[in-house]
Structures are given as structure tokens and as C-alpha cells.
Write a structure and sequence with these properties.
The complex is a heterodimer of chains A (267) and B (169). Chain A has 267 residues and is mainly alpha-helical. Chain A has one domain (52-266). Chain A contains ten helices and two strands, in the order ααααααααββαα. In chain A, α5 runs antiparallel to α6. The termini of chain A are far apart. The chains are: A mainly alpha (267), B mainly alpha (169).
Chain lengths: 267, 169
């Protein structure tokens, strides 16, 4: 046993040493790179260039600018694929509604201890507020629709773990149909935003800021004091609702107790 | 009236958290923060504040909370840290771990949680479970000095309860 530990220790040390020497001698190239790649240069120079607005996205956050402007259609399809996955989930769990009254007798014992419950009661609204902050600043700071939507879903996930899924349905009066509606509203908003330039006569789907060859005007950069980076702010907000509601919907579906599920299917 | 007060208290908390998370007080953030806080507070105020919301606006409770904050983090916590550091560095490692019953005499959910968190946050003691009907915690103690519930209460949680009762109960 002791010999084995020593052998493992020495082997690990030699392995780390070899990797370290390889990196020092430049075996993996220079890390970090000393020059900026051509593609990165384009985004750095153009995504928030107030003096040359030909190719800009009006968003100081280059990643958001790429996601919702430069390669917007890719993000749109990602969202659509995720929506299809959620719809398939809903179709698989094809029961109408879990009757809350059926399990009211055992509901008192549900959930974790009072300490976890109290902490979750405080954390739940705070997580949702912070996720909204991340979503609303997606065009200015790191973050954005998908990340903040996941954060919102985590708030509901902790609530399901600490209390039970019936807490969301009873205390918050939110059923899975509400989340499905919210999700559809978000996706339709994204679709409308994407099609708006086409309807206005542009040749480019999801056009945010007008390019030199565009015939249609840009989305307004700001709405009064609210800098929206053209359409990126609205896209982030819609994606926040879409992803948050979608994940929560799936969490609600997979947290239906097996017995309840079978009982309803038998009826 | 109490619903308005609890909404207001929740709203203020959420607004402050939004501003801290945004790390900016530009007009845009204040407007967005107000909207977000109103929406979230609308459905979470009853969740956050179950009892009388007047407690939130009681200055004496806040004074006790601030006093407890400094007393806890500047005196109680370093003491316990030092105790555990000594045990770790001691060549014989003098530990005697075990789980003891610690009764509590506080009422509200927040007090029970705050006392439990205070016990867990000090090195050496961890609350592993709580028995609401029997009104006692099950605490894992690195050095079991006594197994009698009353003595344990005296040694582990008496000070926490004294302060936190005045803050939350």
C-alpha cells in the first residue's frame, strides 16, 4: 500500500515536470498569443467603434455582438433547437395536470429541513433579481440571455429541491402551462425581432445596425437613457425568458413523482 | 397595511441587490432595477416575510444585528478558528468528534436558521440536523466536552441565541 502511494506520487510529479518543461520550451506555442488574430482584430475594431459605424453592432460587449448580430442566425437556430427539445419533453410527459390535492396529506413532510427552507426563501428572489440584472446588462457586460436564463432556472431548481414542485404550483401559482406560455412569448419575440428588418425591406435577416449596403435603417441605438445596442438588448431579454422558462418547465416535468405519474396514466 | 410593508421591505432588499449586482448607479440601472424589483417583489414578498413586517423597519433590531455582526466576526469566529488551528497543528491531534443534542429556545424561522448558521460557520461545530418538534439541533462537535444538552447549549449556542433573539424573534 505504501509503495503504491509512493509510486503514484513520483509518477505524477514526473508527468507534471515533463508538461511544465514542454510548456517552458514552447512546445505548445506561445501562451498567451503575442499577436491578435485577424478575426479577433475585426471584432475588436468594429463592434463598438463610435467613429466608424459602418460595421459596428453598437454593443461594447463583443461576445453579445457576435451572438446576436454578426452570427445571429446561428444563435436563433440554437434557440429553436432547444425549443424543440423542450417541446419533445412536454410531449413525452404527456399528462394533463398533476392534481395537487391528491398528495396534500403527505405535503407537510415534503422538502428539506427548516434551515434549508429559510435560506432558500431568501435566496430564491435574490437569484431571480441577479439573473435579471445579468440579462438586462447582456449587451454591456459579460453574460446575456442564455446565462441569465439558466440562472433563473437554478432559482426554481433550488426551490424544487428545498420545498417541492408543489411549492411552485401552489405558493407561487405558476403551472407548467405558464412557463410554456412564457417560453413561447420569448421565442415569438425573437422571431419578430429577426423578421422585422425583412418586413421593413432589408435583405438581411436579423439586421441590427445598418451596413453600408443596407437599404433599411438601423434599430435605434438607445431608448432615451436606456442604451439598447440596437436590437441586442431585446434579444437578450427574450432569450432570458425563453431559456429560463424552458429549463424550469423541464425541471417541473422531471420532478413529477413516479407514483403520481403512473397513477394518472392508469386513470 | 402589513402587505404593503412587506412588499416595501422586499422591494428595498431586491433593489439594493440589483444595484450591487449591476455595479453601477447610472439612471438606466436605477430604472431597470426599479422595474425588476417591483416585479420580483410582487410574487416573492409573502415568501420572504411571513410574520410582522414591522420588524424589518425596527431600528433597535438593526442595531442588535450590527452589534452581533461585529461581535461574531471579530471575537467569536477568530477564537474558534484559533482553537481548531491548534488542534490541527498539534502533533497528537487532540480531537474527540461526536454528535450532541443542543436544545434551542427561539421561535421564528429566521432565528432558528440564523442560530444554526452561526453554529455551522464557527469552525469545530456543524449543525447536521434540526428537530423542530423537540426544539433541538443535532450538532457535530470536533471536541465533545459534554453530552448533557444543557451544558452543550451553554457552551455552543447560548451567545448566538442571546443576540439573534433580539434581532429576529
Amino acid at each position: 500500500m505504501k509503495t503504491k502511494d509512493v509510486v503514484i506520487g513520483i509518477t505524477t510529479a514526473i508527468l507534471l515536470l515533463v508538461i511544465a518543461i514542454a510548456i517552458i520550451l514552447g512546445g505548445t506555442g506561445w501562451t498567451p498569443l503575442t499577436e491578435i488574430r485577424l478575426l479577433a482584430k475585426f471584432y475588436l475594431e468594429n463592434c463598438f467603434n463610435l467613429f466608424d459605424k459602418n460595421y459596428w453592432a453598437a454593443s461594447p460587449e463583443a461576445v453579445s455582438a457576435m451572438l446576436w448580430d454578426y452570427r445571429g442566425i446561428d444563435t436563433y437556430y440554437e434557440t429553436a433547437v432547444f425549443f424543440l427539445a423542450v417541446i419533445s419533453g412536454v410531449a413525452l410527459f404527456r399528462i394533463a395536470e398533476v392534481k395537487v390535492g391528491a398528495i396534500s396529506s403527505m405535503r407537510r413532510e415534503l422538502g428539506l429541513s427548516i434551515i434549508v427552507k429559510t435560506v432558500t426563501r431568501i435566496a430564491f428572489p435574490l437569484i431571480i433579481t441577479v439573473s435579471a440584472s445579468v440579462a438586462l446588462h447582456g449587451h454591456l457586460t459579460p453574460g446575456g440571455g442564455f446565462q441569465s436564463g439558466s440562472m433563473m432556472a437554478v432559482a426554481f431548481l433550488t426551490a424544487i429541491a428545498a420545498f417541492s414542485r408543489y411549492f411552485i404550483e401552489e405558493n407561487l401559482k405558476l403551472t407548467k402551462d405558464n412557463f410554456l406560455t412564457l417560453r413561447s412569448v420569448g421565442l415569438i419575440t425573437i422571431a419578430i425581432l429577426a423578421l422585422a428588418p425583412i418586413l421593413a425591406g432589408s435583405i438581411a435577416l436579423m439586421q441590427n445596425q445598418a451596413k453600408p449596403w443596407s437599404s433599411t435603417p438601423s434599430f435605434p441605438e438607445a431608448l432615451g437613457i436606456l442604451w439598447t445596442a440596437g436590437s441586442i438588448f431585446y434579444y437578450n431579454l427574450a432569450e432570458f425568458l425563453t431559456v429560463g422558462a424552458g429549463f424550469t418547465l423541464l425541471f417541473l416535468l422531471i420532478s413529477i413523482p413516479e407514483e403520481e405519474f403512473r397513477r394518472i396514466l392508469r386513470l | 397595511m402589513s402587505r404593503i410593508l412587506s412588499f416595501l421591505a422586499t422591494f428595498l432588499l431586491l433593489f439594493v441587490v440589483f444595484i450591487i449586482a449591476s455595479a453601477s448607479i447610472s439612471p438606466m440601472d436605477i430604472v431597470l432595477g426599479l422595474i425588476t424589483s417591483v416585479i420580483v417583489a410582487a410574487f416573492s414578498s409573502t415568501l420572504l416575510i411571513k410574520e410582522a413586517p414591522t420588524k424589518v423597519f425596527n431600528v433597535i433590531r438593526w442595531a442588535w444585528a450590527i452589534a452581533y455582526f461585529f461581535y461574531y466576526f471579530l471575537i467569536i469566529e477568530p477564537k474558534c478558528h484559533w482553537d481548531v488551528v491548534k488542534r490541527i497543528l498539534h502533533p497528537k491531534m487532540p480531537i474527540k468528534p461526536g454528535i450532541v443534542r443542543v436544545p434551542y429556545d427561539v421561535k421564528s424561522d429566521y432565528t432558528i436558521t440564523a442560530v444554526a448558521c452561526s453554529i455551522t460557520n464557527t469552525p469545530g461545530t456543524v449543525v447536521v440536523d434540526v428537530d423542530e418538534e423537540g426544539k433541538k439541533y443535532y450538532v457535530h462537535w470536533i471536541d465533545v466536552k459534554a453530552t448533557d444538552p444543557k451544558v452543550c447549549h451553554e457552551m455552543i449556542s447560548k451567545t448566538f441565541e442571546k443576540y439573534l433573539r433580539r434581532v429576529f424573534d
